[in-house]
Amino acid sequence: MANYRETQVSGDSWIRAKRIILENPLNSPPQAHFIEERVIVAGTELADMSTDGYIKINVLGTPLNDTMTDPTTSFNLLNPETDEVIGTATYSDIYAIMYSLHRHLAAIRDAQNN
């Protein structure tokens, strides 16, 4: 059986973190959960099906998890635009950054409520 309006397409595909969940359970090590997705962008052959000339398909991937039991674990910091290594950080650094962001946002909220 023939496929209705079958067309050969070209395009690009990559994996990205769609959602990041950081958990900070009481009396347990923090946990990081990344929900990945594969993005598929099909080329201009399908221009009649999308306003910008491309079809974008997002497919959920496998979760990626880690319990941050060793706060000294280090990893490369990457420039999100170029993927270039720009330094290193530790799990402890992430914890301090997220703690500080929480306190910053809470202070803004509290100031608006006064």
Question: What does this protein structure show overall?
Answer:
- By secondary structure, the chain is an alpha+beta fold.
- It folds into 2 domains: 68 residues, no CATH class; 45 residues.
- Helices cover 20% and strands 40% of the residues.
- The chain contains 1 helix and 6 strands; from the N terminus they run E-E-E-E-E-E-H.
- The radius of gyration is 21 Å and the shape is elongated.
Q: How many domain regions?
A: 2
> Could you give the order of the helices and strands?
EEEEEEH
Q: Which stretches are poorly predicted, pLDDT < 50 over at least 5 residues? A: none
Q: Could you say which structural class the secondary elements and strand pairing correspond to?
A: alpha+beta
Enumerate how many helices there are, as a single number.
1
Q: Kindly estimate the percentage of residues that lie in beta strands according to DSSP.
A: 35-45%
> Based on CA inertia axes, which overall geometry fits?
elongated
Number of strands: 6
Radius of gyration: 21 Å
- DSSP helix fraction: 10-25%
**Span between termini:** 69 Å
Query: Roughly what is the average pLDDT, rounded to an integer?
Result: 88
Largest sheet: 4 strands, antiparallel
